Amino acid sequence: MTDRADQSAPRALPADLLAILVCPIDKAPVSQDGDALVCPRCGRRYPIDDGIPNMVVETE
Questions:
Q1: Which of 31, 33, 36, 41 could share a disulfide with 45, CB 3.0–4.6 Å?
Q2: The predicted structure's pLDDT at residue 10
Q3: Any bridge partners for residue 53, and if so which?
């Protein structure tokens, strides 16, 4: 039997993927914080949906 809490827990992205991802705004490397990628320079958070980072920036 699978625990439901395990199914909703954020999965870590592969280290080789994190090594090449940068913030699309200021090109700083991002780090994973739970279910999002975070840019330490500008503070933007990019959600990770079903293991896929969504780093699309919507224009105003």
A1: 36
A2: 77
A3: 48
Vertex 38: Cα angle to 32 and 41 (nearest 5) = 135
CB of 4 closer than 8 Å to CB of 20: no
> Which residue type is seen at 28?
A
Does residue 41 contact residue 25 with C-beta atoms inside 8 Å?
Answer: no
Q: What percent of the chain is predicted at pLDDT more than 90?
A: 75
Structure pTM?
Answer: 0.80
Average pLDDT over residues 15-25: 96
CA distance 16 to 60: 32
37-47, pLDDT tens digit by residue?
Answer: 999 999 999 99
User: Helices in the chain by DSSP H: which ranges?
Assistant: 4-8, 15-18
